[in-house]
UniProtKB/TrEMBL annotation:
GO terms for biological process: nitrogen fixation. It comes from the Bacteria. NCBIfam families: nifT_nitrog (TIGR02934). This is Putative nitrogen fixation protein NifT. It holds the Pfam family NifT. InterPro entries: NifT, NifT/FixU_barrel-like_dom_sf.
Length: 73
């Protein structure tokens, strides 16, 4: 599991992993409502990560722990 940061950008949500200096646009969230946010997230480059579902953050950026689902980076 790695620490990642999610923020709002011009294209929508942006995923950033400082450890590997990976930054990409988030294409979709498994859950994206005020009471349940997170789950599987898909990146524009095809990568998929999983963050534990939680209530939607009140503000961004937010740091969370994520697990890579596939080998694309």
């Amino acid at each position: 599991m790695a620490n990642i940061m999610i923020r709002k950008g011009a294209e929508g949500y942006v995923f950033y992993m400082p450890k590997r200096d990976i930054e990409d646009v988030i294409v979709s969230f498994e859950f994206d409502s005020s009471d349940k946010w997170g789950g599987t997230i898909r990146l524009k480059n095809g990568g998929q990560y999983y963050i534990e579902p939680q209530p939607a953050p009140e503000r961004l950026p937010i740091s969370v722990r994520a697990r890579r689902i596939d080998g694309v980076e």
